[in-house]
Amino acid sequence: MDYIIFLVAMGALIYGADFIIKESERIALHFNISHFVIGATLVAFGTSLPEMAASMMAASHGKSDMAVANVIGSVIFNITLVLGLVFFIAKSMKPERDLFSKDSAWILAPVVIFLIMIQDGVIGRVDGIIFLFIMISYLYFLFTSSKEDLEGEIDDSLTEKFNWIKTIVLLVIGFAFTIGGANFVIESGTSIARSLEVSEWIIGLFLISLGTSLPELVVSLVAIKKGHADMSIGNIIGSNVANFSMVLGAASLIHPLSIDIQANSFDILIMVCASLMLFFILANKLYNKAGAIFLLAILALFIQNSFI
Known about the structure:
The protein is mainly alpha-helical and 308 residues long. The protein has one domain: Up-down Bundle (A middle domain of Talin 1), CATH 1.20.1420. 81% of the residues lie in helices and 1% in strands. A two-stranded antiparallel ribbon has the order 1-2. Mean pLDDT is 83; it is low at 150-160.
């Protein structure tokens, strides 16, 4: 039964993601907002809700390993699996936004702050508040640094075609299918994993984080298929910022999160390496199969060390 639920949930994810991309594009066109900003805010936060729900639930039950592993695993999968596949599949990616000069700092800054915070082995409530302020800072940065993309004027030619009620309803349906599908993927997958007697860290690091990364994967693949490279990359950068700031921030406010740095040092190292590789790719504009190979190689090392 778990396998049937898993397949149906995957279908819901794909169906919901298509709604999100179509309606996000309508909003972007209507207000002359760049696809990157839409991807880094509306789409990124929406697809990060499964991670937030999973980590908050884990924190409320005192399962710190699962809550933290979920975030670490999601960041790794978002960069290596999602962007790796996007770069590999895309025939040509030419983002209009200068991603390196404008957004590269937001790839590394949350990681550095996270590394500093965990030195005492605990992400406390004060740390959670700091993370939430980082989220606010990121939003402020996006909407002040992208004034050239945020004209603020409605395109009159689109007024007759644009319907706020229809767009909002379809967005809600899209997020409901995407998030609901991800939740069922997590629940059914977790049941399968527990029957195999897997540890909570591994469940959080692989099964839950992979399940909660499925919305980012599906949305990014659909976006690139529709030719929106900016939205695809913006979704991942925004999702990773949200994973650290919004997800860990909210979870640690519910209950301080403990982490064994020594026991999980390799997974943390892989997360840092994946972030540095994305930084390198943006710096050299390797939005192609070469960049994909670098990212997928890191993913292969991650899986190989964990299971073989």
